[in-house]
Structures
1.
Amino acid sequence: MFGSDPFDDDANKSGPLGQDLLVKLRNSKLKYPFIVFAANAFFLPILLLAQCFGLIVLPLAILLFLYVMKVQNFWHQLLIGMFTILIAVLLSAAALVPTVTTEADLEIKSFDGTLVDGSLTPFRGNRSTLYNYSITVVNDNVTSDICPYVNIGELKGISIDDWNKSMLDHFLNEDNTSVTYYLLTHANGTINLFSFSVSVNGVWYEAGNLNDGTVFAVQGPIDESTLAVLGYLSIYMFFTVMQLAFPVFLILLLFLRFMYKSQEAKRKMLESYRKKKLEDDGKGGPDMGDPERSRRLSAFGDGSDEMFVCSECGADVPATAKFCPNCGESFEDEEPEIDIGDDRLRGRG
């Protein structure tokens, strides 16, 4: 990809394995919606498995299909990439709606078992709904100093803002070995999260979604309007993608264009020297008294299209060149050695 123009039209030739359809697609306007569809079809399954990895795969998928479809204009590449990313935002938000609006089957508790049976009812509602948050503290000492709180946060953009820490009311269970605390309150956000923090005789305990030694907030309550949830998830995915996927796409795109422009400048320089040589040949041959001109013509050959690769630096070199114009490696044939008995004679041909 880096040795030549990655968006070169020479690759638009039909191959022996039924590439005619691909060539026709490259030459039609359908290639643009194809890039959008193919990149998102590649990206979405990975996003649902691992969100961070999916956001890295998205710009790579866009560049891959831009290359396959041979989109050469930089501004076309940039606009198609941005449009593909916007479609990815909407599709990923829609794909996440069922996950967000479905109540997870979690056991809300603390690691040591002091806090158990955490719950939220109902899971979905509206701004006027009263939600019941409750947590049970296992403690057989009724004189203990217990301060229970519920932490409720609202999803805004890519972060959870407006954390509200509210103290719970309580009632004593009949067995006198545990106390259940509850709080009835409204939720202002469309997508909210919650957890419990309880102090027992000055020792704090956290209850929530336990995972890998960490207590995470639990999802809920969620607004009953699915359209409102989709809107909030679209905003969340937009900020997330613009922070992670778009910069990667832009950097890679600029890098590829830089590589292409470098190769293009090198080809133009080579063609300029070939054209100059042909003009000199048409005027009666080059001025061989000019050492620099003789050196250039030796390096760039006789203007034929045949090329080979320099064994020292890997540069493309005209087949008739006497040395590499890039690294200076000489291609003059060495004189052969002939073994006759114990003596070695060097040919002088």
2.
Amino acid sequence: MAFSRPVRGYPSLSYEMGRNPEVAIIRRFGALNVQNLLYLQARLTVLEQQLHRQEAIDTAATASVSVRSSSEREVADVDTATGGVSRVSSHEQERADADTKTGVSVLTMKVDYTRDWCSIYTSSENRDNEQWRLMEEISKTLKEYSM
């Protein structure tokens, strides 16, 4: 089947511009592209701050686990509003005691998140995945930002 000339409208216009690129006039939407990049930059800045805050929370919570007895744990957490230390809720404490991977508390593994990709990746299979969720969102936004 022989190629015939495209129908009138966009098909014909794009055909001619493709054959003669030097006459093609394509609007770049420069201001809109820059505005979009600025919004993506702002979003990445917020995500970066949230990630660093979550890293500090997880590291502080992990570093502060001390076993007082077989049934009682004291866990410190970073208070993001004041930068101080406060106790973790009993719900989080119960979850830390209940969630285990090869006999190690999930809280104990959190300290490894900033140094060991496998630790944070396997935590995403459990219920404890805020750092992983943030990294996935950052990755997605960075791909859009870098296009």
3.
Amino acid sequence: MSGERRATLQDRVPQARLYKAWNIPGITERDFTLLDLYSDVLAGGKNSRLYKRLVYTDQLATSVGAGMGPFELGSQLTVDVMVKPGVSVELAERVLDEELGRLLREEVADPRIGLVTLTKVDVSPDLGNARVFWSAAPEAGEPSEEVAERTGQGLQHAASFLRRRLAEELPLRRVPELHFRHDPSLALGSETLSLLREIRDDEER
């Protein structure tokens, strides 16, 4: 389904509720992971951008939430807003769209960072430093060493930004400095699976 679809349902309830949904790539696609992170920043709790704007600042809503409907062929990203009594749904939707656009413009998107899996996080007792271990599986035909070097550079470049975002989202008295360390386990596992598939294909010929 493409294009915009709208529907209005009437019921005897004290508050109006606004739902917005987008068709997005399937759960196995890289963009699904990025949009999952995007939904958390947008409406994942009381410190999220939409909650702060709609509930605290503008006082247009009493609650805001976001969710992912994960499926293999195609998924959905949904945002729902419980509109405050006396506030028009149209105004709440306009503010929601403003925050969507602002987040897309302002958040950092580094092309060096692909699909990354965090394998372990070690935080010092005083919360001063955190070693974040990550792994990234290379795409077909791409050397794992090049992927590791490129991704590591992108993560280190984004460390300050990520620390600021964590400070906004997490109720911690101190947010540690982030130090990214490569964990080659995922890439090695991917290479092992590729070799096993080659062996199986050779035996079947």
4.
Amino acid sequence: MPNYPTSSNKRKRSAEGDKAERQQRCISLCQEAAYANSCKALVKPAPVECTGAVVRQLTCKHPSCAPVDLSHLGPASPALVPTLDPEMVAKAIRTFHPHSSGGPSGLRPGHIKDAIRTRLKDELLEHTAGVVQQLARGEAPSALAPFLAGASLTALPKKDHDLRPMASGEVWRRLVAKCLCGVYQSEARRLLWPLQIGVAQPLGTEVGIQTARQWFERHSGDPRAVSSKSISPMLSTQLIARRFSSNVPSLSC
């Protein structure tokens, strides 16, 4: 977790000190040309300091679990993975938000964007595409999994004095995911629609949220209506892996 200047609710500071910190954050973000974020920094509290108490609180929100056994799925098929060429990788890089955060390594999407604007663009994209292709095929050393699949966790203070964990995944994993999502967008729509409206459907999530909200408002007085607060999503990693292996085997690497 990055070690930000503290705005922890456990240690009170003077109004002047808090104002000075917000101003400094605003200036730092302006220097990165993150003007929208710099304006938000003036009115929103900074992430809290990384302390033992904060780590314990975030650990409770993200409890560890035993590794999932996927041996029953059999060996993956790297030969089925589509070819991810430099043009496809460049397109995926451009879709990152200009000021998207980096993961545990500190590498940000903006760093890659800046690099491909140089005269070495072609060489860089060729090597980047090679790395992305290797990761997509599952050929990276297994020892790298905790780093590539890990994330930097930042704690943001909430109004009720609780903490909101914000995870930022490693850029390389996110880049591979963007490339593969672009390739299988139409296939995802065919497999998931209409049960899943947030994949490959423009404004699908927004439409779903608004429809659900209107339904609850129309049936707010009906005791038979299901309360949205009682819905608890359940995810099974093994089930997801089995479905990928059977429906889209090239993504099971």
